[in-house]
TrEMBL record:
GO cellular component, one term: extracellular space
Record PROSITE patterns: SERPIN
Protein family (similarity comment): Belongs to the serpin family.
Keyword Disulfide bond: no
Matches recorded under SMART domains: SERPIN (SM00093)
GO molecular function: serine-type endopeptidase inhibitor activity
Name by which UniProt lists this protein: Serpin B11-like isoform X1
Keywords, in A-Z order: Glycoprotein, Protease inhibitor, Serine protease inhibitor
Amino acid sequence: MAKCINFSLELMRFLYRETTNIVLSPLSLEIAALSILSGVKNASFDEMRDSIFDMKISLRNINDFSSALKSIISEIKSLQDMEFKMYNFIYISSKYKLNEQYMNNVTKNLDTSLKLVNFEDTSLELYNMIDAEVSDATMGRINKVIQNVPTVSNMLLINSTTLQVNESRQSISSATSSKQLKQLFKSSYEGRTSIATTTEYDKAMDISFSVHNGQFKYYHDNEQGYTCVELSYINANLNLILILPKEGSSPRDIINQLSQNKLQSISKLMALKQLEIKIPIIKLKMNIDLAYVWQIIGIQKIFDQDEADFSGLSTNPKGLCLESIIFNSEISLNGNFKEKTVSQESSKSKSSSSSTNKKTGGKKSTTVLSVAFNRPFIYFVTCNIKEQRKVILFAGVVNNLLETN
């Protein structure tokens, strides 16, 4: 999983644009990539494995990896107070015959839908059929995907991942639609948006900020000036990690330095601190074809008809190659977080701190630090699973509030 996280961060670096948001699921990327890796051999296998996966994965043990990944996904989907859904589709030209062992592995362990179709049919019937199947399975989150890939003749991969965390009215009632916060976020659009006036901007960006008071994990990097906080959802297994660059700098500056090891180091440096955190209440979506980006990063053979070796997937693989990888992701950055308010903390510790209060003249000694995510920031949604591991479900950047709701 560590190598796949680095691969996801590399994708973020290539996808980064100052005015757009990024929504990726490293776990979904691993599922989709493994469903392809299971069908390739020789140089195609080596190139893809070296770019995305750890060296310990091989043609001999790839089924074991798939089975282990299935166990992780099943555990995540079983968690309460949240709904995690992942769909993986592979459409292959009907002129190829599928390898039965490959079919058993990806359908059983990777929950992947495989279907042979006639891509040579130029009528709209095939396109409508694929659109309908994907739309039904994803409850309308992906529509008209074929319009984005008009040249598919061999193989198409479509992946959709969503996370919905249950929210209570209490968490929403603490929201504030502060005009000042929205105006601060507006600074990131100046000179890069068609919205000319403050009035137009406020009308287009009807965004509220949720406010969370309590003890949260916190770290501030004095050298680079970025701030990192971690909020734990009511579901103890789910966490939201937010990284706020220093004012005047771009999230790109932080992303360029991030790696799986760097994220682990930041996590170890975080400590509990009394905070007031303000987060925009937003829903993030992204629909993108990643085939071109994969090739730029270095995965090229599986996209080349002459070099691709899909002999693990098909018994007649000559000319078979992957042409398009459509990824759809959707997540809301809000939910019910575990919070201990300053007043609650004071009342609980009142008896034990009475002598201290006398010495300080009864003044409150608790200092609350305010952290407002009122400018572009980076986020990660992680899930604690068995064996004391943290899995990154989503990773991305919020650059543009206008594109969120």
